[in-house]
Amino acid sequence: MSTYYDTRYTFDDGRSRVWKAITEYLQKYVDEQNDHILDLGSGYCDFINNIQAPVRYAVDINPTGRQYCAEGVTFFNKSVDSLRELPDDFLDVLFASNLLEHLDDAELQRALVQFNRILKAGARVILIQPNYRYAYKEYFDDFTHKKVFTHTSLRDFFEANGFKSIAVVPKFLPFSLKSRLPKSYFLTKIYLASFYRPMAKQMLLVFKKR
User: Fold this and answer.
1) Alpha-carbon torsion 78, 150, 127, 177, what sign?
2) How many CA atoms lie within 13 A of 89 on its CB side?
3) Which domain holds residue 61?
4) I need a labelling partner for 36 at 20 to 30 A (CA). Which of 45, 57, 118, 170 fits?
5) How far is CA 1 from CA 7, 38, 58, 62, 143, in A?
6) Nearest alpha-carbon partner for 168 in 209, 136, 207
7) 121 in the Ramachandran plot: left (φ > 0), alpha (ψ -120 to 50) or beta?
8) What is the pLDDT of residues 136-182, one digit of tens each?
9) Model pTM score
10) What are the pLDDT digits (tens) for 73-96?
Protein backbone atom coordinates (compact mmCIF):
# COMPACT_ATOMS: atom_id res chain seq x y z
CA MET A 1 0.00 0.00 0.00
CA SER A 2 2.76 2.46 0.89
CA THR A 3 4.48 1.83 -2.45
CA TYR A 4 1.23 2.61 -4.28
CA TYR A 5 0.96 5.98 -2.52
CA ASP A 6 4.64 6.64 -3.23
CA THR A 7 4.39 5.92 -6.96
CA ARG A 8 0.95 5.81 -8.59
CA TYR A 9 -1.10 7.92 -6.18
CA THR A 10 1.14 10.63 -4.79
CA PHE A 11 -0.14 13.68 -2.90
CA ASP A 12 -0.81 16.80 -4.96
CA ASP A 13 -2.29 19.87 -3.27
CA GLY A 14 -3.59 21.08 -6.64
CA ARG A 15 -5.97 18.12 -6.74
CA SER A 16 -8.24 19.79 -4.18
CA ARG A 17 -8.99 22.67 -6.58
CA VAL A 18 -10.23 20.21 -9.18
CA TRP A 19 -12.25 18.29 -6.62
CA LYS A 20 -13.91 21.46 -5.38
CA ALA A 21 -15.44 21.87 -8.84
CA ILE A 22 -16.32 18.17 -9.07
CA THR A 23 -18.08 18.16 -5.71
CA GLU A 24 -20.06 21.26 -6.66
CA TYR A 25 -21.27 19.34 -9.72
CA LEU A 26 -22.17 16.33 -7.56
CA GLN A 27 -23.80 18.32 -4.77
CA LYS A 28 -27.21 17.89 -6.43
CA TYR A 29 -27.11 14.25 -5.30
CA VAL A 30 -26.32 15.19 -1.69
CA ASP A 31 -28.61 17.05 0.71
CA GLU A 32 -26.27 19.48 2.44
CA GLN A 33 -28.70 19.93 5.33
CA ASN A 34 -29.54 16.33 6.20
CA ASP A 35 -27.41 13.62 4.59
CA HIS A 36 -24.97 11.27 6.26
CA ILE A 37 -22.30 10.56 3.63
CA LEU A 38 -19.34 8.19 3.48
CA ASP A 39 -16.35 8.43 1.12
CA LEU A 40 -15.12 4.88 0.55
CA GLY A 41 -11.46 4.63 -0.41
CA SER A 42 -11.08 8.28 0.55
CA GLY A 43 -7.37 8.62 -0.24
CA TYR A 44 -6.34 12.21 0.38
CA CYS A 45 -9.96 13.15 1.26
CA ASP A 46 -10.36 15.53 -1.68
CA PHE A 47 -14.03 14.64 -2.13
CA ILE A 48 -15.19 14.36 1.47
CA ASN A 49 -13.43 17.58 2.50
CA ASN A 50 -15.24 19.54 -0.22
CA ILE A 51 -18.74 18.05 -0.27
CA GLN A 52 -21.34 19.81 1.87
CA ALA A 53 -23.17 17.53 4.33
CA PRO A 54 -23.78 17.65 8.09
CA VAL A 55 -22.26 14.21 8.81
CA ARG A 56 -19.22 13.06 6.84
CA TYR A 57 -17.19 9.86 7.08
CA ALA A 58 -14.03 8.71 5.30
CA VAL A 59 -12.86 5.10 4.99
CA ASP A 60 -9.48 4.06 3.67
CA ILE A 61 -7.11 1.13 4.08
CA ASN A 62 -4.19 3.56 4.39
CA PRO A 63 -3.96 4.81 8.01
CA THR A 64 -2.24 8.05 6.95
CA GLY A 65 -5.51 9.13 5.32
CA ARG A 66 -6.59 10.39 8.72
CA GLN A 67 -4.15 13.29 8.56
CA TYR A 68 -5.81 14.66 5.40
CA CYS A 69 -9.34 14.82 6.85
CA ALA A 70 -10.83 18.27 7.32
CA GLU A 71 -12.41 19.23 10.62
CA GLY A 72 -15.72 17.46 11.06
CA VAL A 73 -14.81 14.37 9.00
CA THR A 74 -14.68 11.07 10.92
CA PHE A 75 -12.05 8.64 9.62
CA PHE A 76 -12.14 4.82 9.72
CA ASN A 77 -9.02 2.83 8.83
CA LYS A 78 -10.68 -0.15 7.14
CA SER A 79 -10.82 -2.07 3.90
CA VAL A 80 -13.87 -1.45 1.73
CA ASP A 81 -15.23 -4.97 2.20
CA SER A 82 -14.83 -4.90 5.99
CA LEU A 83 -17.37 -2.39 7.25
CA ARG A 84 -19.10 -4.61 9.82
CA GLU A 85 -18.64 -2.14 12.69
CA LEU A 86 -20.72 0.48 10.90
CA PRO A 87 -24.42 0.38 11.86
CA ASP A 88 -27.26 -0.83 9.66
CA ASP A 89 -29.33 1.66 7.64
CA PHE A 90 -27.42 4.77 8.66
CA LEU A 91 -26.04 6.22 5.40
CA ASP A 92 -27.84 8.47 2.91
CA VAL A 93 -24.98 8.64 0.40
CA LEU A 94 -22.02 6.41 -0.41
CA PHE A 95 -19.30 7.82 -2.68
CA ALA A 96 -16.34 6.06 -4.26
CA SER A 97 -13.83 7.29 -6.82
CA ASN A 98 -11.42 5.01 -8.66
CA LEU A 99 -12.06 2.18 -6.23
CA LEU A 100 -14.03 -0.78 -7.56
CA GLU A 101 -11.53 -1.60 -10.29
CA HIS A 102 -9.03 -2.42 -7.50
CA LEU A 103 -11.24 -5.22 -6.11
CA ASP A 104 -11.51 -8.82 -7.27
CA ASP A 105 -14.85 -10.61 -7.63
CA ALA A 106 -14.94 -11.95 -4.07
CA GLU A 107 -14.07 -8.52 -2.61
CA LEU A 108 -16.74 -6.87 -4.73
CA GLN A 109 -19.43 -9.25 -3.54
CA ARG A 110 -18.47 -8.75 0.11
CA ALA A 111 -18.50 -4.99 -0.43
CA LEU A 112 -21.98 -5.10 -2.01
CA VAL A 113 -23.32 -7.01 1.00
CA GLN A 114 -22.03 -4.24 3.26
CA PHE A 115 -23.35 -1.48 0.97
CA ASN A 116 -26.85 -2.93 1.14
CA ARG A 117 -26.63 -3.25 4.91
CA ILE A 118 -25.34 0.21 5.82
CA LEU A 119 -27.39 2.21 3.28
CA LYS A 120 -30.90 3.38 4.04
CA ALA A 121 -33.70 2.59 1.60
CA GLY A 122 -33.54 5.22 -1.13
CA ALA A 123 -29.90 6.05 -0.37
CA ARG A 124 -27.66 7.08 -3.25
CA VAL A 125 -24.37 5.57 -4.46
CA ILE A 126 -22.12 7.89 -6.48
CA LEU A 127 -19.31 6.23 -8.43
CA ILE A 128 -16.50 7.68 -10.55
CA GLN A 129 -14.00 5.37 -12.19
CA PRO A 130 -12.24 4.52 -15.44
CA ASN A 131 -14.48 3.40 -18.27
CA TYR A 132 -12.73 0.52 -19.99
CA ARG A 133 -14.55 1.23 -23.24
CA TYR A 134 -12.59 4.47 -23.61
CA ALA A 135 -9.53 3.82 -21.39
CA TYR A 136 -8.49 0.35 -22.53
CA LYS A 137 -5.03 1.48 -23.69
CA GLU A 138 -3.97 2.87 -20.30
CA TYR A 139 -6.28 0.91 -18.02
CA PHE A 140 -3.63 -1.50 -16.77
CA ASP A 141 -0.93 1.13 -16.46
CA ASP A 142 -2.12 1.05 -12.85
CA PHE A 143 -0.62 -2.18 -11.55
CA THR A 144 -3.33 -2.55 -8.87
CA HIS A 145 -6.28 -2.75 -11.29
CA LYS A 146 -8.01 -6.12 -11.04
CA LYS A 147 -11.50 -5.65 -12.45
CA VAL A 148 -12.74 -4.21 -15.75
CA PHE A 149 -15.95 -2.17 -15.95
CA THR A 150 -17.67 -0.15 -18.65
CA HIS A 151 -20.60 2.14 -17.95
CA THR A 152 -22.87 -0.67 -19.14
CA SER A 153 -21.40 -3.48 -17.05
CA LEU A 154 -21.15 -1.33 -13.91
CA ARG A 155 -24.78 -0.26 -14.28
CA ASP A 156 -25.90 -3.86 -14.76
CA PHE A 157 -23.79 -5.07 -11.83
CA PHE A 158 -25.40 -2.66 -9.39
CA GLU A 159 -28.90 -3.12 -10.79
CA ALA A 160 -28.46 -6.88 -10.28
CA ASN A 161 -27.57 -6.22 -6.64
CA GLY A 162 -30.47 -4.13 -5.38
CA PHE A 163 -29.87 -0.69 -6.90
CA LYS A 164 -31.55 1.42 -9.59
CA SER A 165 -29.46 3.67 -11.85
CA ILE A 166 -30.50 7.32 -11.84
CA ALA A 167 -27.57 8.79 -13.80
CA VAL A 168 -25.09 7.26 -16.25
CA VAL A 169 -22.43 9.52 -17.76
CA PRO A 170 -20.04 7.42 -19.89
CA LYS A 171 -17.56 10.29 -20.36
CA PHE A 172 -17.20 12.40 -17.24
CA LEU A 173 -13.52 13.15 -16.49
CA PRO A 174 -10.07 12.53 -17.98
CA PHE A 175 -8.43 9.24 -17.06
CA SER A 176 -6.04 10.74 -14.53
CA LEU A 177 -5.12 14.01 -12.85
CA LYS A 178 -1.48 13.14 -13.48
CA SER A 179 -1.08 15.19 -16.64
CA ARG A 180 0.35 18.47 -17.92
CA LEU A 181 -3.06 20.12 -17.80
CA PRO A 182 -3.38 22.84 -15.13
CA LYS A 183 -5.28 21.80 -12.00
CA SER A 184 -7.77 24.63 -12.13
CA TYR A 185 -11.11 25.05 -10.36
CA PHE A 186 -12.49 27.30 -13.12
CA LEU A 187 -11.32 25.11 -16.01
CA THR A 188 -12.85 22.07 -14.31
CA LYS A 189 -16.14 23.93 -13.88
CA ILE A 190 -16.15 24.83 -17.59
CA TYR A 191 -15.21 21.25 -18.54
CA LEU A 192 -18.06 19.72 -16.51
CA ALA A 193 -20.56 22.24 -17.88
CA SER A 194 -19.67 21.32 -21.46
CA PHE A 195 -21.37 18.67 -23.59
CA TYR A 196 -18.00 18.07 -25.25
CA ARG A 197 -15.42 16.66 -22.86
CA PRO A 198 -12.13 15.94 -24.64
CA MET A 199 -10.00 13.14 -23.18
CA ALA A 200 -12.85 12.00 -20.91
CA LYS A 201 -12.23 8.36 -20.05
CA GLN A 202 -13.74 8.15 -16.58
CA MET A 203 -17.45 7.58 -16.06
CA LEU A 204 -19.98 8.77 -13.49
CA LEU A 205 -22.80 6.53 -12.33
CA VAL A 206 -25.35 7.31 -9.63
CA PHE A 207 -27.65 4.71 -8.12
CA LYS A 208 -30.51 4.61 -5.64
CA LYS A 209 -30.98 1.71 -3.25
CA ARG A 210 -34.29 -0.02 -3.85
Assistant:
1) positive
2) 4
3) 2-209
4) 170
5) 10, 21, 17, 7, 12
6) 207
7) beta
8) 999 998 888 999 999 999 999 999 999 999 999 999 999 876 656 67
9) 0.92
10) 999 998 887 787 789 999 999 999
